Structures are given as structure tokens and as C-alpha cells.
Amino acid sequence: MPPARKRTRSYDPAKIRTAVLAQYGNVRAAVATLAADQLALPTRLGDWTVRDLAAHCAMALEAVDRLLAEPEPARQDGRLLDWPSAIAADAPAIAGSARRLAQEHPDLDALLTDAERRFTADLDAHPAGRLLPTSAGALPLADYLVTRTVELVVHTDDLNAAVPGLDIPYDRQALAACTRLLADALAAKAPGGSTEVRIPPFAVVQCVAGPRHTRGTPPNVVETDPLTWIRLATGRLAWAQALQDARVSASGERADLSAFLPLMG
User: How far apart are CA 112 and CA 125, in angstroms?
Assistant: First the structure.
């Protein structure tokens, strides 16, 4: 008898919409407090400044408007779990667009506010099943919204790292969705059941080929907190450094995830 297929995780579109807007609101409120010298600070994203990064957060919502303007695909041919790896190919174009947007819009608050207005109008005007032509193939709008939690949570962390004293809060639902999507993407990239990855309180996944664990304590266990996991998955933190700093625990011969990380890079 063939093994049962894993059920794809589902997300409530209404809750994801609320989470995206909540995290975006946190970012917009924080950016409004930044002085010119703070906006000019470097970030850990190559030559991006804080201003470029803030403009990119507007792009996270504007992407929905841009994709809705494209012809709707005839059928869904992409998977949500493929998005983290697919987005890497767009990195150079995204970086250029962020810098250009930051230069063209000196009033960041106006830029961020307008992006939110158009995003909300788009969601009101289109059903959750409307297909979008994304980097990962044609995906429903509802699935693409989940990727917006990743964009906003990851870049909230980037902003907090770039500006001393900045402490933008994380919406719990946005943080949960981001954590779960990246955990599931790991399980898709490294299918198997020999290793259990625990990211309390949001996700537990089985991954890595090898003997499948069935009962009791798994022989291979990785555990970390949500933000550390997100940094590992996006290349902000190296696996070896996370182990050295005791930010992740890994036990068992198949608990080394370095070959599979980052998921986004």
C-alpha cells in the first residue's frame, strides 16, 4: 500500500488578510517615526538602505495590484510551497525596483498609505480564488496573500536589525503563517520522515529522507524559535552560527539541516 499523501496546510483567507494588514500597519507606523539619518542607515541586504527597505515593504502589497492587472491564468499550475525558492530568481529586479521607488517617492508615508489603500480595494474587488501569475506559477489570490506575511515579517526583522532601538512588533497571526509556510517549504524540499523540526508554538514538520519515526521520542530532532527559524530559512543566519550561539538545538545524525538552507536566498 503506498504511503498516504501529506495534507497541504490550509489558511483562512480572512485571518491572513487581517494579519497582513496588521503587520503592514506596524511597519508603516514605525517608518513614520524615522528621521532622515535613520532612513539612510545601511541594512543587512547588500547595498539597501532603510529607505529602500521601507519602499520594498510597500511593494509587498503593490505586488497584488500588479499581478491582478495581468491576464488571469487559465488554471492553477503552481504550489504555495514552491514560492520561497522561486522568489530568489526575482531578487535583482526586486532590488532595483525598491531603490527606484525609494528615490521617486520621498514621502514614504504617502507611498505606504497608498499601497495599503489599493491593496484593500483589490481584496474587496476580487474573490480569494482569483488566479495570479506569480513566480511560482499560477496561484490563487488566497495563497499569494500568505506569501505577503513572509515578506512583511522578514523585512520587519530586517528593519529592526538595521535601526538601533527600533522594535517593530510582530502580529502573532502573521508570524505564525510565515513560520508555517517556511517550515512546510523545508518539508517539501527535503521530503521524508526521519527528522522532526519543531518551531514552537507554531509548527512541527517531518522531513529528511531516512527511517521514518513512528512512536516515542524521535531520534533526530531540531528545535528553535520562530524568528531564528525565519532567519535560517531566509539566509539571514547561518546554520553553524545558530548552533554555536545555541539558538537552535539539533540532536541525531540526520539533524543537520545545513544542506537544505536557506530556502530563500
Answer: 20
Label residue 219 by pLDDT band (50, 70, 90). confident
User: How confident is the model over 89-119, as pLDDT tens digits?
Assistant: 777 777 788 888 888 888 999 999 999 999 9
pTM over 0.70: yes
Residue pair 186/257 in contact by the 8 Å Cβ criterion: yes
Three-state secondary structure of 147-186: HHHHHHHHHHHHHHHHCCCCCCCCCHHHHHHHHHHHHHHH
Q: Are residues 169 and 209 in the same domain?
A: no
162 shares its domain with 202: no
Q: What is the CATH number of the domain that holds 92?
A: 1.20.120.450
Among the listed residues 96, 87, 91, the one whose alpha carbon sits nearest the alpha carbon of residue 134: 87
Q: Is residue 197 helix, strand or coil?
A: strand
Q: Yes or no: say if 41 and 102 are a contact pair by the CB < 8 Å rule.
A: no
* Whether residue 105 is found in the same domain as residue 204: no
